Amino acid sequence: ENPGFDTTAVSATGADGSNANNTPAAMADNAAGATPPPTTTVAAEPAAAEPNAGDTTTAATNPPAGGATGDEPTATPPSPNPDAEKPAATPPTPAKENPKPAPKPAPAKKKEPFKEMPVAIDLPVIQEGATPEPAVLGNLYSEPTDICFMTLIGGQHALKGSGEFTMANAESGTAERDWEISFKGAAGQSVIATMSLRDNKLLFVWTDAGIAEPAAPQLMNCRIHMDLNQFAHDLNLRSTTPVEPVAFNLQKSRMSERVNLDTMPDPEYMKVEILGLDGPFPMFTKDPDQPMSATNGTQTLLFGEKPADQLLSVKIDSSVKGKAVELTFALMLKSPGSPRPIAFNAAQLGKMKQQVSASMQANNFKLTQIMEAEKKIKDPQQLNRLGVPAQKQLAEQLAQQLIEMEAGLTKIEEMVQATASGGSVQFRVFYDADGTQIDLARSDIAAAAAEN
């Protein structure tokens, strides 16, 4: 038997070698549906062992059982090929990295809330009988959820006498974008104006009570301080009045300036500050070095780098008369023989130098007499009784003072000649509202605007 073939499926052959199943009768029976004999599956024998390397023969193949023709294919085991290339090892598949999430778009940069808010505005002029119209104070950019805090500064002394301005959120303090400005006077308290924030615009409007209140225009002396998130801004409710600087030169012994200020605050809370000198003037220091009272202030400008050189000075006095601030400038000279400076007139400079020269000659003559007395009187006790040493000491001190005075007058003469073209004094007048300085008038408007 051939291993792996079903022997029951092969029919016996006749004596002549023919297959009985191939007869016409058998084929007819098969076609008629004759039941084939049952089949039995024979397990395949194990494969033959591999021949020795030195064996030159091959194993014979048994002929097919039952007279098989030998045309059927036979299974041939593959011969080993040691020279065949082994398949390349497949590299491991790298682990897939989790994709990084796409970066979130940067949030839109918020506009600075007070970037387009001015530092000073003029309130609408009150017109009796006219219907008040809202005025835009400036642009204020904010988000719907932002809360803006408003504080009124300077309302306590914005006018002379009794009366005070205050500001609070509308609707009994619950409104977040509406504010009420009130005035409390002898007749009581009333809301004179309102503010509101609408569509990024800060609006202001007078009320009927404000139009009827005589003190309402004094609100212009106040300032509104604003806070929004981490930003802050100050808005003055009046523009600074531009004034001319004071024309100044050392050839005039006295100068004055009048600054008109309508609707000024309480004068007791107004101050004047000297900002500087424009022109060919020497270095100076201010005494005292702080703004002076507008009502009765005094300040001195001392020319010279060192105290010993500060012979010439300018005394400035300030006062308030009616609706104006008056400033006076007087040239002063520090005399060695006088405890206080005296008025200086450049026209008398030559005469003063002559007086100093004459005093020097007289003092030198006195010193000569003292020295001659010392030569004649040899007794020290007698010299002391006559007061010669004390007189000599005083004469020597005076001689030194006169030398310094002569040198100082020479410097002053040169200074007056150098500043003949003149110059100007820059200054400002401001309202001191509890430490907050609100400019009322200023001579250097351009410089102040550039600084802001």
What is the 3D form?
A: elongated
Helix coverage percent of residues? 10-25%
Enumerate the spans where pLDDT stays under 50 for 5 or more consecutive residues: 1-73
In this structure, how is the largest beta sheet organized? 6 strands, mixed
Q: Beta fraction of the residues?
A: 25-35%
Backbone structural class: alpha+beta
> Radius of gyration, rounded?
59 Å
* Number of β-strand runs: 20
Tally of alpha and pi helices: 7
- Rounded mean pLDDT is 81
Helix-strand string? HEEEHEEEHEEEEEEEEEEEEHHHEEH
Which helices and strands, and how do they pair?
Elements (H helix, E strand, L loop, with lengths): L23 H8 L103 E5 L8 E6 L10 E6 H4 L4 E8 L2 E11 L2 E6 L1 H5 L10 E6 L2 E6 L4 E2 L3 E3 L5 E7 L9 E9 L5 E4 L4 E2 L2 E8 L8 E10 L2 E10 L8 E2 L5 H28 L3 H7 L1 H31 L4 E11 L2 E7 L2 H7 L1
Parallel strand pairs: 9-20
Antiparallel strand pairs: 1-6, 2-7, 3-4, 4-5, 5-6, 7-8, 10-19, 11-17, 12-14, 12-19, 13-15, 15-16, 16-17, 17-18, 19-20
Helix pairs in contact: 4-6
